[in-house]
Amino acid sequence: MLGLTLGLLSSAFWPITTGDRRFRVLRKLMELLDYELQKSMISKRRPPLKRGKVSQRLPVPDHIPQPPYVGSQVLPEISSNHQIHDSEGITRMRAACQLAAQVLENAGSLVRPSVTTNEIDKAVHQMIIDAGAYPSPLGYGGFPKSVCTSVNECMCHGIPDSRQLQDGDIINIDVTVYLNGYHGDTSKTFICGNVNNSVNRLVKVTEECMYKGISACEDGALFRKIGKRISDYAEKFGYGVVDRFVGHGIGTIFHSEPLIFHHRNDKAGRMVEGQTFTIEPILTLRPTECITWEDNWTTVTANGCPAAQFEHTILITRTGAEILTNRASVEFQESMVIGLPAIENVMWIGSSCHRAKRAAMGASFTTKLRYSLAVDW
Ligand SMILES: *[C@@H]1O[C@H](CO)[C@@H](O)[C@H](O)[C@H]1NC(C)=O
Ligand SMILES: *[C@@H]1O[C@H](CO)[C@@H](O)[C@H](O)[C@H]1NC(C)=O
């Protein structure tokens, strides 16, 4: 923009000859502008993420049931038990996932410059225990906090700390709750203040990739279709899909098989009706290599480029997938799924494609959630 303006100035509006006094003035002016431009670009270059101060672990009231891993510092093994639910299990999954979605939405509304990730953690912790649920990350393999907050080049598993969010940051908030013996898991990348176009696009395309992955799901479909759809789409925009982190089965167990690969792969295995798992792609600029900090959690891109992630927990149905962590009360925006081919096959809760169905389901979900919150625990 600035370059174009200078070009116009010098050629069209200010005809000049070498040695002309006006030329020297202009050159001085251009040098000054160039210097100012460079200075502003340098000052805009974000310093690398650093560890802040991590506060004391927050207490959970005794009456709230805890998942079995709490108290052990050891990272639990990925369970080989595929979690396929009966109707009672599905009801409980819906309730846990709806709570996770509500908490995530509320947490996202706190994102603004100067808020610390520790403050977000405190709010998330309080919302979850107020609902009678346990914040699943707290004490998982020794994880010290109730939510993961991953800022800028942190691709996942960021630990909430004293760092204040800055104008231009992006932050993924990853919420998992344990309610009535079931985990619901969802995450979203939020924008803090003014974020430049290239980062905005990364965030938008990552969300679209998640929906591309979900659109591959139905009873009998190959798991590897998920990775293909996501990679095909990400590559169109020149992004890389991180292969180090995977989605996972979820239910009574936080992390189980099937492992969901978001990158292109040739793994065997098909989806089964009644099965619940997460789809949670992370995208960044290539190469997608990462570095894990000494805390054994915080994982950042090796090249320092920002990374974005979105996650839903889904339920496989006969004809598609139900997004359990969609907010029933939020209007689903079709703009998020530009060019999505198989939308008819997917039971989008909140989709205007299924307005009537959504209205019916939305109502019953809310009732079920209220029921679960009020009666089951
Ligand atoms: C946008 O912001 C990101 C992160 O701060 C930075 O890496 C990138 O160079 C910026 N892009 C432009 C075009 O300014
Ligand atoms: C990280 O993991 C290594 C290897 O398992 C272990 O020795 C170290 O104590 C861990 N660090 C922290 C902060 O837990």
UniProtKB/TrEMBL annotation:
Domain named Peptidase M24: residues: 92-317
GO biological-process terms attached to the record: proteolysis
Broad EC category: hydrolase
UniProt keywords, alphabetically: Aminopeptidase, Hydrolase, Metal-binding, Protease, Signal, Transit peptide
UniProt cross-references to InterPro entries, sorted A to Z: Creatinase/aminopeptidase-like (IPR036005), Pept_M24 (IPR000994), Pept_M24_MAP (IPR001714), Pept_M24A_MAP1 (IPR002467)
Pfam name, any one: Peptidase_M24
Name recorded for this polypeptide: Methionine aminopeptidase
